[in-house]
Amino acid sequence: MHPLDIAVIVIYMITIIGLGIWFGQHQSRKEFFLANSSMGWLTVGLSVMATLFSSNSFVFYPSAALGNSLRIGLSLVAFALMTPVVMFVFIPVYSKLKVETAYEYLERRFHVSVRAVAAGLFVLLRIGWMASATYAASVVVSSVSGFDQITVIIGLGVVAIGYTMLGGLRAVMWTDVVQFFVFALTIILALILIMAHTHMGLGEVFTRYFDGRDGLVIDFDLSMTREYGTWAILIGVFLEAVSAFGVDQVAVQRYLSARSMKTSQIGAFLNLVGIFVVIPALLMVGVALYAHYMQTPGELGVGTLTEVLKENPKLADEGFPTFVRLHFPPGMAGLFLAALMAAIMSSIDSGIHSVTTVLVVDFRDRLLPFLRPEEGKQELNAIRITVLIIGAISIGLACMVGGMGNVFDIGKKLTSAFGGPLLGVFVLALFSKRTNTLGALLSAILSTVITLYLMYTQTWFSVWYWPIGFGLSILLGLVLSYLASAPQNPMTFRKIMQMQESET
What we know:
globular, about 0% strand, about 75% helix, Sodium/glucose cotransporter, mainly alpha
């Protein structure tokens, strides 16, 4: 790398570590977990965006557009439909009940066993997600920088674990804000540079992209195996988004850190605005790369672009980093690497922080309260040790997920089997008075097992496992609750809102 690239990366890393040290000066349990519920809407919104828009996204949106279609862009419709659900259903519930984690609600509605199972599903989902997100970014960082992939994973993981241990949620959220602006700026600059290299206008780039190809934007084929099918994206990504932004502790923890419910709701809307800026820009990067490689297919392989991608579809994942390595000027290549580091560290820091919160609050404090230290300093040290352990596990898994397919499939496979059933349990709890503890508990376990079985015995497109897991959870929950009828705590969404109105 050019010395200017190294300088950009060093400045960025010093800034991130400095934030962790700065915010680590006055820590307590509430500060570490919830930033004393003092965060504003800008920090909440951009932190949610930077966290859940993982390094997977940085790779697979351009890859999908370059490889075969823009149908993944229909994710924007799914995100737009998801946001009101999160703003006006889930955020009011958490705000009213004043919970420390999302899964506390499930104990109030059902039983501590349901809370534990749901929290366990989250832990498995998020550790798998961290591993896949870390792997995705490491592929690109390794390709551009020349460093060994394992070295990249371990190095960035250590930095992310370090500032998370020091600064808690406040450090994590503010580094997320910095990271959002870094990768947003990088995407825009990259798009400008790629367009310049095509020597084409915007209209000509699109003409070249769509020439001789059908079904690139919409394809209502109901095939379970077609990649990026319209129905799969609209249904699967919507459910994934509701799960990620509505019942995942990573997002919920940011809502709980806000000054008020309204602050959280504005932050959730700001997250949508950020999505509508970043995703179209990344898709346009893929479109522009297609035009570029049509002119110079030899940069990816021998033959025409169509032949190259047909022989090795995974080369689409290499399209963006290959262009960076060959054409980015000194300094800008360093900014690109800093953006990828931002994406990977944002994934790691938020994941290990939220998993630590759930392990401490939902498992240790609730099930093993005698293990909780009496002194605040000892408690903080115990929390930081947990952060270290979870981080080490996630980094270890990230070194082993490369054989599961392209970066898109890796991310979906490691989350859908747990995220779909988890969302199903919350929907049953909020909107089905009939659902009881046994039904909710067994539906979560059985739907997870069945989805995992299908995932490794079928060759369906990975996004379909989200509606499969969710649908199984809902169906089994209703049927099993009917067969084992029992009186339940009627703390449904309607009841919670009535409580809010009466207190207001």
